[in-house]
Known about the structure:
globular
Amino acid sequence: MTESTAARPAALQERSRRSQQGILDAGYALLEEGGVDALTVAAVAERAGMAVGSIYRRFGDKEGLLLAIQHAFTESLQAEIVERMSVERLRILRDPAVAIAEAVGAISDAFQSHEALLRVFLLLGTRHEEVRKQGSRVSVEGNHRFAEALRHAPITHRDPEAALDFAFRLIYATIAHRVTHGEFLESDRPLPWNELRSHLQTAVVSYLLSTPEGR
């Protein structure tokens, strides 16, 4: 096999990868701009500069395209959080309170960075079972990674695993609520993202490291 023929499959694979990424990027943009109603095969094809038929061949229909976009987005979001919240990174921080605060901040920062797209999928998941299932799968994996990253911390509860599980639920519920409903649904008092992040860090550190009353 000559060098040119050996390089051809690699070039084709790279072109296919770029095309796939172009489709995903077009889908992200359309969902952020107009929600799920703006996501059509024709709109994605136009935005990505591709033929409509090539989108259908890759994904089947709008449903397949939507789920592929969600899968790629949630996997990328999870990888971003894992990188910020790695076991190795948190164990370098000798103060457990600092490590816990870093883990909470990693989740909050990632959600804030992708707020518009997350809002689409979180709201869509309330009426689309496959979207909900995929979102739940990634969230449960995130829960496990959060617990693993903080397993070394001196959790002051009878059941540290249950405490870490509740802490993740608290973080996720609070941030998901902010993403879907905004800043002022339940209060007219301003609470910008940076303050929400700080209060969550304080609450979770206190919950995990403080001895509960009556113990």
